Structures are given as structure tokens and as C-alpha cells.
Sequence to fold (377 residues):
Amino acid sequence: MKKHNKKTSILFVTISILITGFLFSACDGVIFDEIRKEVKLADAKIAGDIQNIIRFNYGGEECVFVTNGKIRYRSVEPDVVDNKGVGFSDFSSPSGYVYSIAADTDNLYAMSATIEEDDDGYNAVTKRTLYCYDSGSWTQIWSEAYSTKRAFIICTNGQTKREAYFVYGLSVYKLSGSSTTIDTSSTSYVYADGNFPIGKGPVTTADPSKTPLAVNSCTSLGVGGTVYFSSAYAMTSAKTSTSGETAYYSDGAYVYYSTDGSSWVPVNLGCDTILSLTITNNYLLAGTSDGIVHTPINVDTNTLAAVPSSGTADFSTNADSALSSYYEIPALLAIDPKKNETAGTIYASSITSSSSASLNNVGLWSYYASTGEWNRE
Fold:
């Protein structure tokens, strides 16, 4: 296990050893002026490494949750507000450094790491623990001494059907509240469907004739809410104001889309590696290893698929200035896909390992229709 000097922030300690499935390439160069579109940047209140931006109904209200070691949340209503007047609040966090969160319809989950100083004076992860938020408190449902196996949680993160899963190595275990029993000695694999790096599942028995997917993402699709998994960094689904429900997953610079989960059509955005995806009524947004991009969506009159255009388009906002090519964008979430990009609320996170980039810009960003600009949360 790689060690880190104890003076190093816990934030960056966890990046290299916890979220193996989410590590991306660094960026280089001298940072350019982030306010080249005349946007004054707000003081960052939610800084640090944010790998997840999720939905969860808390107290009967739809909310957005993020974690940068500690969990923060805010209501999505109204989705057009002044970001200086309505901010994120602290949420109860389990012990340790929370590096991954997920939610199903009824429960919130968190993965945390116990970080301790070793005999040589270095900070080291000694244990990883999975918790469920139940009846106002956190209940431990799995814990194990640190190993190099992947251990994180994912969720479908849709507006309606929501399911959450624990990824451990190549196995995938469905979460169902604090009563969840996880036996990591058993296998729970997902396999690719045909030639596509996606699959339905999880399958609870191993098939020696197949190689399990290294699952990194999931989404639900269709009337029954079938859950699809992918080895892709990004997977999402949505229904716009004029299209039927369409699912997407990423593969390098390509986005694959489908309305039935069996036939997937590739579109080349011609960008860097896609790490996150979200849908608005008129644009598909992609967070990449080299900033944020977007491409127009057109509705197929035969299938009602929301089809992304090849290539990318210029932004009318300061998105590509705020979330520039000096940053990786591991998480994106548009609150209402039935609204045009500039008419709703969108959240994004940015990270970097470049010494040339400004660490002040690492953290959570937001776009609100009332302000018409991207700014730091």
C-alpha cells in the first residue's frame, strides 16, 4: 500500500488508495484565468475530492447529497435559486473519512475509511466500513481491514426507481437497508451482454465460462426499472420533455445510447475520456478527464430516443471556463432533465492532481438558472 507523509491532507491520502475504480489521469499546464467570461467566483464552501452527487428523499423532501470526507446536502426545491442564499448543510456522517455515498428509494449509504498513523509517522488506511443511515443514525453493515480490492458503492440515481449496490472486487451486492447481509466469500457477478460492456444483474452464481464485468456504474431503464451495469465510468438514463426514456454509458470518447437495453448505438463526441454524464432537455453533458463538454440532443421520431449529436458544441455559459481542461469532472447531475440546460439546476465536481491547477477550484460547482452562471458552492 502506498504511504503518504502525515502532513498531507487526508483528502488527498484517500484519492490514491480508496476509490480505485474512480482514479483518472492528471492534467498539466499553467491554469488560465477562470473568470475570462466575467464571472466572479464565490468562496468555495464545499472543497475537496467529490466522486458522487446523488439524489435522496430526506424528510419527505428531494435532496442532493455529496461527500468530501463529510456529508453535505440541500433541497432541490426550488431548483432556480440564488446560490448565495440557499446553500448546503452538514449532514450526520459516520466515523472516518466518507469517500463514497449512494442511495436507494428508502436508504442512504456511506463508505468510510479509518485512517491512522503508522509506526513510521505516515497516514495509512487501516479499515473500510459500509454504513446505512437508519432511523436517524448510522448502522454498520460491513467492515474489513484495508486491502487492495475495490470497495465502493453505486446507485441508479434516477428521478424514480432507485437501487444501490456495493462493489467489492469483481462482485456486486444489492443493498436493502441496515438489514443487508454481505458475505464477501460468496460471488455475485455481472456479465457483459453480447459485445457490449453492460449487463443485467447482479447474477448470484459464478459462470466459469465468462469473465465478470469490473462494474463501475449502473442505471435503470424501462417500465419495470431493469437495472443495467457497466464497466464504464459513466452511466445514466432520463426522459426529456419530448423523448422516451433513454439510457447512456461511456467508453472513452464515445457515448452509447439505448431505449430498450439490448441495442446500443455509439456516438463519438471527439473529446477526452468521459467520466460522468447527465441529461438536460436539449443537451447531453459529459464530464471528462479534460474538463466539461456538451452536445445537442435530437429526438428520434421512430424510437423516441434522445440522441446525442457527434462532436461537441460551444457553451453559452461559462461552463467550460469554470470546469476547464485543467480539471477532471468525475460527477455531474442535472436536477430536471425536462428543462433546457440554461433553465434548470446542474451540479458538477472537479478534481485535479496537477500542481499547476488551483486547488481553490477543486470541489463542488453549481449552475442555477436564476444566476445564469457556473460558480463554486
The two ends are 33 Å apart (CA to CA). Residues 1-36 have pLDDT under 50 and may be disordered. The longest strand covers residues 122-134.
